[in-house]
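ping. complex inputs:
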Amino acid sequence: MNAKELLLILREIKDVSFSSVDNSGNPKCRIIDIMLIEDERLYFLTARGKDFYRELMENNHVAVTALTKNFESIRLEGKANKVGDNKYYLDKIFECNPAMNEVYPGDSRNILDVFCIDKGIIEYFDLSKHPIYRQTLSFGGEKIKDKGYFINETCINCKKCFNLCPQSAIYELNGIMNIKNENCLHCGLCYENCPVKAVERW
Amino acid sequence: MNAKELLLILREIKDVSFSSVDNSGNPKCRIIDIMLIEDERLYFLTARGKDFYRELMENNHVAVTALTKNFESIRLEGKANKVGDNKYYLDKIFECNPAMNEVYPGDSRNILDVFCIDKGIIEYFDLSKHPIYRQTLSFGGEKIKDKGYFINETCINCKKCFNLCPQSAIYELNGIMNIKNENCLHCGLCYENCPVKAVERW
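pong. complex structure:
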C-alpha cells in the first residue's frame, strides 16, 4: 500500500476523527468529513465560529484516525493550512459532496474555510492479522521518524524477549535478537524484561 | 438519551478514537477499544511501552470520538486514571473481550495497564437530522460548560441572524432573537453578521 492509496481510503471512509489541541493544551476531537483528495493533498473544512477553527488557528497540528470496515486502522499526522482560494475549493467540495447543501444551504457555505494537509505521516495498522501488521508511510515529502523499539549490540542472545513477545516479532540475526517492526505492537514487554537493557526506544 | 446510554453505545461501537497530547503539545490519536462500562465508568487499556501510555502519564486529559452506524457522532472528554487493582480489571476485560487473547496471549497481558474515565462530558451530534441536533450530557458528576453562542439584550430585532442561520435555529422570544442551542451548528454566521454585536460566545 502506498500513501496515496491510504489517503483515498480515508476519503472513502469519509467520516473520520480529527484531533487538535485547545489553548489549555488539552486534546479535542470531533468527526470531520474528508472532502477531497487531490494528488497527495487532503482537504477538509470547518466553520469560522467553531472551536475547531480557533484551535487550528493557534496550533495547526492535526491527528486523524479512521477505521476501515475490516477493522484496519489508519492514522495520519500533519499540519492543516487554509487554502489560498477558498471560494474555488468550497464550490468544488460542495459539488463533490452534495449533502453539504443540506447542512449549509445557499450562501451560508461562506462561513466555511477550507483547509489542506499537504504533507504528513500516515500509518496503517491491522490488529486482526496474526501477527499484527503495521506500515508507516509519508506523503508530500514528510520525513518518517523511526518509532517503537530496537535491540542494540549489547544483546547477550538470552532469548528472553524472543520468548515473551506476544506477536513473535523477534528473530535472531547474526547471533543477536532483532525486532521485526512491521509486526511489533510497541507494547514494551521486551524493553521491560531485557536483563542487559539492550532493548531501546527509537 | 442519558449519559449512561451514550456510554453503552460507545461500548457497542467498541473501536473508537482516543486523542491525547504529546510532550511537544501536539495532538495524537489512535483507535482504542472500549473494554468495559460499569455504571458511568469507562475502561480501556494500553501497553506500558506505547507512546499513548507516556502521553497519559504526562497529561491524562483524553478526548474520544465515535460514529454510530446511523452517522450520529459521540464525543467524550474526561481524565483517564489508572485503576487501583490492575490484575482484577485486566482479567475481567479479557473475559469480556476474548479476542484480546489473540493479541496478548498468556501472561503477556501483564504489559497492559487499565485506565478508567469516571467523569466527563459526553456530546451527541446528529448532522443527518434537519435541523441538526446536539445534546450535551455529563457523567460522574462533571459540570457542563455552556458552548456555542447566545444573543444578548442589545439585540435590535433586525432578524438578520434569523434569515442567515443555515439550520433555522434562531427564533424570536419577547421581542429579541434567541438561539436554540440544540439545533445550532456553532458555525458563527450570526456572530459574524450581527450589526450590533449582540451575538456572543458562551
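Chain A touches chain B through 54 residues (CB under 8 Å).
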